[in-house]
Fold this sequence. Notes:
The structure holds 2 protein chains of 2 kinds.
Chain A: E1 3-14, E2 17-23, E3 26-28, E4 32-37, H1 43-50, E5 58-63, E6 66-67, H2 73-76, E7 79-82, H3 94-102, H4 110-119, H5 133-146, E8 151-155, H6 163-179, E9 183-188, H7 191-197, E10 200-205, E11 208-214, H8 215-218, E12 222-228, E13 242-248, E14 251-257, H9 261-269, E15 274-279, H10 282-289
Parallel strand pairs in A: 4-9, 4-10, 7-8, 8-9
Antiparallel strand pairs in A: 1-2, 1-3, 1-5, 5-6, 10-11, 12-14, 12-15, 13-14
Helix pairs in contact in A: 4-5, 5-6
Chain B: H1 13-26, E1 35-36, H2 39-46, H3 50-62, E2 66-69, E3 73-76, H4 85-105, H5 110-121
Antiparallel strand pairs in B: 1-3, 2-3
Helix pairs in contact in B: 1-3, 2-3
Amino acid sequence: MPDVIVTDRLTKYYDRRPAVNHLDLRVPQGSVYGLLGRNGAGKTTAIKMLLGMVHADIGTAEVLGEDSSRLRPQTRARIAYLAEGHPLYRWMKVGEAVRFARAFYPAWNQPLVEQILDHFELSPKAKIRRLSNGQRAQVSLALAVAAEPELLILDDPTLGLDTVVRRDFLESLIQIIQRRARTILFSSHILGDVERVADRIGILVDGVLRVDCPTEHFKGSIRKLVLEFPGPPPQFPECVGLVGNRQVGRKLEAIVVGYGEEHRRLAESLSPRSIEVIEFNLEDAFVEYTRGPRRSLPIFVGGEPDA
Amino acid sequence: MEFHIDTASRLPIYRQLTGQLREAVARGQVQADERLPSVRELSRTLVVNPNTVARAYTELEREGIVNTRPGLGVFVARPKPELIKKVRRERFLDLLDHLLTEAVHLGFTAEEVVGMVTERVGQFQWIRD
């Protein structure tokens, strides 16, 4: 299978800080790739570079065999993109949004879009500004699917949707996957969604792709390393598989995917007093590490945490 | 046969599916030659990638638990004693030792363990000589 997306050392700086750092990504044709990461990990920036909407400072990206920064309109017509938050022109009606999108895609499948809107019980006469977040997500998905794209890129499509709507949305996505060998790249911060839908999973941590493996290899190789030190603990060295680390009192906790000898050696190189390796559920790890900036407040400073 | 998946589980989805079918076969909840849902059907009802379901069926087929009849679907296979007795015995004793180790550490007596095993044996469907 040829690769539909290939990036080579793709890098973007914002304020001298790398938002995406030497990203090497390959997405084979017909596969579903789930890109996970905390808010601000670089998912959206990476996606925008793939689409030529943000210019890379270093490295290259190729999509459908073309340089991302110079995609021809004919090539763009083979890609559908669902931007984060499902932006649509709020003054349009659903039917107008359909007519508007149709103009960009020669392979447009009108019966399909009507069928999907009907399934979601969305009238063409409905005003977009009156729709809920979930309904706007459904309209965007219908528009993206009707374009019959070879490559579908979705930026956190289930963000802000309630559990029921999210499940509905994933169900539709599964049906799209079944329709034909179509390549899908989607980002999310909900592991459960990614695991259901993706063939391969990547995790971005501060702009670096730390994990890139088949979905089934993902679980079972996750460990939480707890290192205890006589004094304040150091940081865990940056390495492949490290999805997060934090200091709790005199302990250093690190979450590692694909745990192996290398991680063991790195842990030992810090000469801790003890090393404990605990099997860990990634959903828990993710909840812990996706909580956002609140986590960094120095709540425990000076005090011994009760953990 | 009702499959279900738990994304909070430590097991990958395809392993959850293979585990459930193996157990259902062992408990006699599904019978040989029973038709199982197709990859498409199962993928849709469980809301998982069809490749994951296909992977589970491939694995089960390799283990001789199901077979795919082209154009007809996936069926529960007839059990065949493929492995020679010695290998099967070794594999089982290995598992048994794991269980007994746990039982010791959980503080059960030998009598209690034998009692529980006897009770559970009745819930499964066994090959008759």
